[in-house]
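Subject: for your reference before the review

Hello V.,

The reviewers asked for a structural picture of the protein, and I figured it would be easier to keep everything in one thread rather than splitting it across files. Below is the amino acid sequence we used in the manuscript, unchanged from the supplementary table.
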Amino acid sequence: MSLSDTVADAPSVPAPRNPEGHGRSRRREPRTYDFRRPTKLSREHVRILQIAQENFARQATTTLTSMLRTGARMELVGIEQFSYDDYIATLPVSYFLATFTLEPLAGKGVLAYPLDTAMAIVDHMLGGSGEGEQPNRPMTGMESTITGALLERLLEELAEAFAHITPLQPALDSVEYNPQLAQAASGSETVMVATYSMRIGAREPDATLVLPFSSFAAALNNAASPQLSESARHKRKRALEALTERLSDVPVDVSVRFNPLDVPSGDLLSLAVGDVLLLRHAHDSPLEVTTNNVTFAHALPSNHRRRLAAEIVPDTATGGKDPA
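And here is what came back from the structure prediction:
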């Protein structure tokens, strides 16, 4: 079964684009929905992640601009949930993927962007313009060292951006150029994919930051439900007690009614003053006690002194009396 890819818990975040900045959109194109792996990202989770990812984008923009000595920008486009295999399937055969550890959390993260962008970054750091066609090959030892310095700075910014969620000490693990070889998670593991639009000089690629959901689940839940101080808990308790007390005094319209009666439309149109409609309600059959068209009890007609009343009964089948 196929459903349109949705981020049910992220309505305020725009749809991410393809990592290369062109081709099919992850959101617009349908993909298989596995009901064995339902959506795990709640709206509150996405809001928390959005704040952290936007902070990372701002800090990364400053880092890229200072280290590349050219105009640079990094902006959050969207946050989605994928299985790791589904994410890898969206990438081309040749791509730049930097995997990193997430100490003290388990699992690994991935920072990925086009390989020609990675080569252009090296060119900028060596004083070049970064323009023109870049080589489509794995990096040399020197190029890897230069890129590693930039990645380490970006990981430091990532740790700072996520500090309000959980302490992190990310460290670069490896670099791969074939997505199928970047084993940062098992194929069925749920990952959180943040897509960024980048601008480095004249290039405007997309980048993705992948984090394992299982590693961040507890931290996200704690951030969504922060620990309250003693005074805050006391205020909430007082508010709950006051609300409960006031709700007990709210007036509610209650009706006691006979069983419904079916009448032909022709008879209704011919009704005149003085006509009699037979209710066909047995004299010992309980009446329905309702509020807002919801029946919550049954009662028998009765009286209290000189006033008509309804006596609540427990058994609607026998109509036995049990005054309430």
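For the response letter, the relevant points are probably these. The first strand starts at residue 2 and ends at 3. Residues 278 and 296 are 26 Å apart (CA to CA).

Happy to draft the paragraph if you're swamped.

O.
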